[in-house]
Amino acid sequence: MNEKLTNYLKGVFAPYEGVKSVEELKTDLLYDLQERFRELKEEGKDDETAFEMTIDSIGDIEQTVQEVANLSRSLERQVVTNFSASNLAKSDFAGVIAHKGKFSGSALRRSNFSGADLTGSTFASSDVREANFDCSNLTDCNISANDLTDSSFHKSILVRTNISKSGLDGAKFMDVMLTDVKLTMTDLRKTIFDRCVFNGVDFKYSDLRGQRFDGQTFIGVKFDKSALNEVSFKGAILKNVSFISGFTLTKKYYRAIKTICFDGAMMDKLTYAALKGMDADLSKVTVI
Fold first, then answer.
1. What is the three-class DSSP state of 65?
2. 184-202, pLDDT tens digit by residue?
3. Could you give the 3-state DSSP secondary structure of residue 40?
4. Percentage of the chain surpassing pLDDT 90?
5. DSSP H helices in 163-260
6. Of the candidates 232, 223, 226, 194, which has an alpha carbon nearest to the alpha carbon of residue 207?
7. Are 241 and 262 in contact (CB under 8 A)?
8. Mind listing the pLDDT tens digit for each residue in 214-237?
9. Residue bearing the bigger pLDDT, 246 or 129
10. Distance (Å, rounded) from C-alpha 120 to C-alpha 95?
11. CA distance 186 to 203
């Protein structure tokens, strides 16, 4: 009858083979069932009755096992996605799923994250130079104080991504829709933006001097308190875009606005009125 109990448990636990915590539960449960079976036999129960009563005594064991397995796998995934303080230069993460991954204080230069799902991950104080994030999912990622020089974000998914205080010289954002992204307190003078749509993006306190946004689309974007000298929006579309200097004792911000090129741009009436009030050159702008 011990063999019958063993075979019963094998059937219940078969889908979760290899999960450590489930294997431990199986061993403990088998011991308890054998003890219970012996007690029932000593009470005079026949083998079949004792077996049925033994099985009934553990309740809905399949649900319990599934819950234990799910918890164990969740914990295992958390361990696997913690890569903080690691030397991972030139690593291949292409196509991986690493939700809420931790990449803090790590060497990630030239690593390949193309096509990876990194939703909710954190990159902080890491060397991520020349990394490949093409087609990766960076939704809800927090990217702070990293060196992202010459990194690539071609067709990346950027939704509620927070990028701040990071080095982005030579970084390429191409064919990207940036939605509710924060690109704050960052030097973006040498960052490349090409064929992008900026929807709800916040550039607060960032250095954009000399940046070229020609032909790109800006909807609900904030350039508040940004450095904007000599920025070009030639042929761009601007809707509900905010340019606010904040408190200032000089006209430095307004002088910067006058240096922006809006030739051939199209903008809504509110954006047009706000820029006109700052004496921006809107002589070649189309109001939509």
1. helix
2. 999 999 999 999 999 999 9
3. helix
4. 62
5. 252-258
6. 226
7. no
8. 999 999 999 988 999 999 999 999
9. 129
10. 16
11. 8
